[in-house]
Amino acid sequence: MSDNGPGSLLAQPLQRPSAGRAAAYAGLFLLGAVIGLAGTLVQAAWFPGGLLLALAGAAGVFLGGAYATGGRGGAVAPVAGWIVTVILLTTSRPEGDFLFGAGGGSYLFLFGGMALAVICATLGAGRQPGGGPARLGK
């Protein structure tokens, strides 16, 4: 039996984020883009350690954004910046330059980063009602 009455979180309408929260999301988007660019360069340079370092940095930004903003949107913002940057860097240019080789490390970085994005967005702190850590009941 669920209670979706007027006091429930599900019954509350969505509100526009405040200016500070919007600025935090924009900053996290840019930070995700920087981590994506740095991870692209590091993962190929020092193969086993660089790949782990790049994925650990991405996971730290994704999960840290969720905890910093207190919601899953804080994880989604850097994930979006990371994905946009990595996808733009996978395309080859007319000059023939590209940053991703056809090796296994590049695919591990791409798919590992996407898996970490899903994991961190799922583990991120969701909206919880205020109060103590005890289980809510009637």
UniProtKB/TrEMBL annotation:
Keywords: Membrane, Transmembrane, Transmembrane helix. Pfam families: DUF6113. Coiled coil: none annotated. The chain crosses the membrane at residues 22-39, 45-68, 75-92, 98-125. InterPro entries: DUF6113. This is Integral membrane protein.
